[in-house]
Structures are given as C-alpha cells and as structure tokens.
Amino acid sequence: MRLEPLRREHIRRCVEIERILFPGDSPWPAGAFHAELDAGGYYLVALTDDEQVAGYAGLAIAGVPGDWETSVHTIGVDPAYQGRGIGTALLRAVLDRADELRAPVFLEVRTDNDNAIRLYERHGFTRVGVRRRYYQPSGADAYTMKRQARAAQEVAG
C-alpha cells in the first residue's frame, strides 16, 4: 500500500467507496471531489500494489500564511481493506500537512461512529461541539472535533 496525491482518474473509485460507506447520508458525488481539487485541497489516495484505490482522505486549507486553518473534509477506506491501518495512515498524512502549516484541524464525525471517534482522539482531537441533524438525509448528529495547531518544535520532536 502506498499513499499518493489524488488524481482525477481516481475520483470514480472514490465515489464508489463513498456510496458503500455513506449510503444514507448523501455520499459525495464526483463533482464534490473535483471541486475540492479545484479549490486546492490536499487530497490523497491509498493505492494497492495493483493500483486500486483502497481509501482516500482530504484536507481543506483556508486562510493566509501564518494564519492557516484546516479541516478534514473526507476520509474513507473500502470495507475490504479496513483494519489494515490505511485509515490511520491517511489521517496521519493529512495531519502532517496541517502540521507543516502550523494549522489547527477541524472535522465532523457522526456521534455514533465510535471507531472513527477513537481514531481521532488517539491523534489529539477533542470534541468541541455537536451539530444536530448534520448528516442528511438520515438526520444523524455530528461531533465537531478539533486538534490544536502543532508548533514547529512539536512537529520535529
């Protein structure tokens, strides 16, 4: 497995994975992935040895140098590849990019997604709020989570 930047030819497979993972909550269409790339987001895919997309993650970046803010907009791993550390590797890679920018990181996660919440907490995220009925059309609630910006010495250490 290796990580590399998401290319447009990967988007069809990302959309397929979205439909598997989020069938009741408006999975991202291809246009959403294209728009994120057009906006300059930092998006990665996890590729298998035979070049298949096993997972993806994206980090939106806003602000100006010295005052960046980032947000994990999406992360997903094909169920056939879950439990192999791919989601952790993708998360760490986008967090590394946020650390390079010394930016705080925000995300939303379903309140009933215990595995994802534990993963985020292990990586320094804390719950800072609840968004009622955030996911549509299911109406599921989401926690807003935040990881503080990492200073240069923290990143190096």
Automatic annotation (TrEMBL):
<dbReference type="GO" id="GO:0008080">
    <property type="term" value="F:N-acetyltransferase activity"/>
</dbReference>
<dbReference type="Pfam" id="PF00583">
    <property type="entry name" value="Acetyltransf_1"/>
</dbReference>
<dbReference type="InterPro" id="IPR016181">
    <property type="entry name" value="Acyl_CoA_acyltransferase"/>
</dbReference>
<comment type="similarity">
    <text>Belongs to the acetyltransferase family. RimI subfamily.</text>
</comment>
<dbReference type="InterPro" id="IPR000182">
    <property type="entry name" value="GNAT_dom"/>
</dbReference>
<keyword id="KW-0963">Cytoplasm</keyword>
<protein>
    <submittedName>
        <fullName>Ribosomal-protein-alanine N-acetyltransferase</fullName>
    </submittedName>
</protein>
<feature type="domain" description="N-acetyltransferase">
    <location>
        <begin position="1"/>
        <end position="150"/>
    </location>
</feature>
<dbReference type="InterPro" id="IPR006464">
    <property type="entry name" value="AcTrfase_RimI/Ard1"/>
</dbReference>
<keyword id="KW-0012">Acyltransferase</keyword>
<dbReference type="InterPro" id="IPR050680">
    <property type="entry name" value="YpeA/RimI_acetyltransf"/>
</dbReference>
<keyword id="KW-0808">Transferase</keyword>
